[in-house]
């Protein structure tokens, strides 16, 4: 077992790189159809994370200047479980480069399944002039969920960390310090009719 963050997060960072590449390709191909921009923050809710995502977020926070760490932790202590993400400040993410996978896919076409039924979900502000999308422009969310869950299982085994989801606020606070309230179970992608995303 190793706690070297450069090694223990290797699989997670590799997944992020693949997802970012896919999202950037879709964004470039459909630039005129995607309304998501800096300052558009309706999707930025207070979510719960897998332990591997929480560790990546905590590591990114630790690299910031002490005054910014204090600012972010103050926001985390005040965060409501059903409110905006504690990292959201004036419409921008304070740890954008370390944002979780769900944040990277927000707004883009996501293929989901419920039983035998398949559906594609995306932000209602996007793709208003597009009647249909090719498969290459759609992210298979179930497959992404499976990959993230497998990576998290390996991470918790290697790191010796509890296999339980934590809120963004919990991930940002020092060990043993708890936010005002626990996470809500409504971590759903906007427009998904309550279907959990990247849980």
Name some characteristics of this structure.
7 strands, 199 residues, alpha+beta, two-stranded antiparallel sheet, disordered C terminus, single chain
Helix content: 25-40%
* SS elements, strand count: 7
In whole angstroms, the N-to-C terminal distance is: 25 Å
Mind telling me the C-alpha Rg? 17 Å
Shape: globular
Number of distinct helices: 7
Description:
With 199 residues, the protein is an alpha+beta fold. The chain is built from 7 helices and 7 strands. The chain has one domain (5-172). The two termini are 25 Å apart.
Quick structural gist:
The chain has seven helices and seven strands; from the N terminus they run H-H-E-H-H-E-E-H-E-E-E-H-E-H. It has helices spanning 5-8, 10-29, 51-62, 66-78, 101-105, 141-159, 168-172; strands at 48-49, 88-89, 92-93, 110-114, 117-121, 139-140, 166-167.
Spell out the blueprint of helices and strands.
Layout: H1 5-8, H2 10-29, E1 48-49, H3 51-62, H4 66-78, E2 88-89, E3 92-93, H5 101-105, E4 110-114, E5 117-121, E6 139-140, H6 141-159, E7 166-167, H7 168-172
């Amino acid at each position: 077992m190793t706690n070297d963050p450069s090694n223990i997060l290797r699989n997670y960072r590799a997944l992020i790189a693949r997802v970012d590449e896919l999202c950037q390709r879709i964004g470039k191909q459909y630039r005129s159809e995607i309304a998501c921009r800096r300052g558009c923050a309706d999707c930025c809710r207070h979510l719960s994370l897998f332990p591997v995502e929480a560790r990546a977020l905590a590591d990114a926070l630790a690299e910031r200047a002490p005054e910014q760490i204090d600012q972010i932790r103050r926001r985390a202590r005040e965060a409501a479980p059903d409110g905006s993400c504690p990292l959201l400040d004036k419409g921008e993410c304070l740890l954008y480069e370390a944002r979780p996978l769900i944040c990277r896919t927000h707004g883009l076409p996501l293929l989901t399944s419920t039983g035998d039924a398949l559906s594609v979900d995306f932000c209602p502000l996007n793709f208003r002039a597009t009647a249909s999308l090719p498969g290459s422009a759609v992210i298979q969310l179930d497959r992404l969920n499976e990959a993230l869950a497998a990576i998290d299982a390996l991470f918790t085994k290697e790191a010796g960390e509890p296999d339980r989801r934590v809120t963004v606020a919990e991930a940002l606070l020092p060990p043993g310090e708890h936010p005002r309230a626990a996470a809500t179970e409504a971590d759903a992608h906007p427009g998904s009719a309550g279907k959990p995303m990247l849980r």
